[in-house]
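Posted in: Structural Biology > Protein-Ligand Complexes

Title: Requesting predicted complex, 3,4-dihydroxybenzoic acid in pocket

I'd be grateful if someone could produce the 3D structure tokens for the following input. Sequence and ligand are given below.
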Amino acid sequence: MARITASVYTSHVPAIGAAIDLGKTHEPYWQPVFKGYEYSKQWMKDNKPDVIFLVYNDHATAFSLDLIPTFAIGTAAEYQPADEGWGPRPVPVVKGHPELASHIAQSVIQQDFDLTIVNKMAVDHGLTVPLSLMCGQPDAWPCPVIPFAVNVVQYPVPSGQRCFNLGQAIRKAVESYDEDLNVHIWGTGGMSHQLQGARAGLINREWDNAWLDQMIVDPAACAATPHIDYVREAGSEGIELVMWLIARGAMSDVADKTKQVSVKHLFYHVPASNTAVGHLILDNN
Ligand code: DHB
Ligand code: FE
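-- Reply #1 --
Done. Output follows.
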């Protein structure tokens, strides 16, 4: 059967993608950011998954304000990098896994989560920047990716609790797939940032680090965090962090209290563009 063996959490700052694409990773401003992902790139090579289930948000790229699915699962064979206004990033096409994605859609919808099924979409920095951070600049991404888009742009957005519960349903879905597949689940976005309004530029190191620590030991407490706390403490775009709870809910210790996850890597850095960068790798042992 298929299994979720690890989860990865990372910010998706678009300027990081530009720094990679324009060869600026060794500049003094960027060097500390990329240093924080050196371990992660090696870990990806040493623990290569068969499939990545990648939870991210679309930034009005594939879905305009005309159509806003709360949760959308990509069931296509491939996804083109999106043109976000400066041309598409020069990164490989993202290959999908239609069979596993369709199975997860079937199982998760039967577990009472209403997913939108997407057979065609372009993927923006929310998905391609985490891939670049974890995989570098390969000619092809190391494995198929199932994109899972969450609306965190236009209110009403889903609660952290619903995201956490959804992660548990995704775990059950993966474990009911017959083929032996090693699946990683990634939660992306965050950490504290606010891109507009009077508080633009807000960064809250203390809150971010407390949240990272709590995500490791007591994710149910993170799941109980109401929207207003994210917005007040982590800025309006800090709400992207609810997506991490989908990945965290899919870990073995949530389903089975006798199990423990281990922390493979933890990294936090400010600044990167307008955003605090947070990154965590958890393994199911
Ligand atoms: C920035 C961060 C984001 O998460 C995003 O989606 C767009 C911009 C920024 O730091 O500028
Ligand atoms: Fe974003």
